[in-house]
Amino acid sequence: MQAPPQLMGSDLGNPPHGKDSAFATDTNQKAIWETDDISARILAIVFDYALDKFDDSRERLALGMVNFLSTINNFVMAEEPVDMCLPGFPFKSANKINKVLGFLPDKAEELALQRLDTMCLHRDTSAYGEALRALAVKKGFNQIIFSRLKDLAGLELPQKLSEIVYVANATNFRRYLLNKYGKEDYDINYEIATDPDTLMTYCGYKRFLESDLQHIFPTGENRSHNGYRRDVKYLAKEMVIRGCAFTGAIKAAFPNHLRLSIHQSTGEHKVSLSLLHTKTGYTTPWHCCVALMANGE
Fold this sequence. Notes:
The chain is mostly helical and 297 residues long.
């Protein structure tokens, strides 16, 4: 994509007079128009990869368009690549019976990374993360950079974490984020009741947890169906509370990035992406298996 023209000399100095003034104004306006056009084309590309299988998907994307364009404009005016931030790829689902085949990345993650890399080119947990990075390198997905929890927490740890070091510090990561970015007066029930984004995230967590944990904590003599659902709701709320702190850490670490999300949202503050090219609904690569159909799709 063509970068906007540089504004030099009188275009950036004191306002000139007469014909010079008209020329400078036209030059500035042209630069603004070209910048806006480039930003709009970039956002259109991102929107091509957004969640679009819901009746109001386009309306939700439109809600945040002004904010998204403003963020992209900052990069375009500086003639720099547009940086985007997508929290995701935590680990494979615990449900190895109905949802996934194992605990390491597979074809689903490869397709998701390829989808993200293509968008940019248009212009067990520790083991999962290490294998995911190796997969990106092996497949040449050079537009993707990974950040770890330790990068957000600012803890002095080796660049390459062994499994023992990772496990030993996992609780420290969470505690640091909650202490630094958590809100003591955060009322999760109030947020779910009043904030649409929080409600959608909570419902998504609840839905995935209910299927993820059903074979690890089966219902029966010692656990009723109602009790299981009640526990899942509690766990989903705890995840939202931690997610609030995580969001604060992301904003602090990547303040100027275009914010992407794997979750359904109102569309005002982040672009919800579909990591896999599905025909109905959406899912994430760590919650599913992929298969090659007879027609080649």
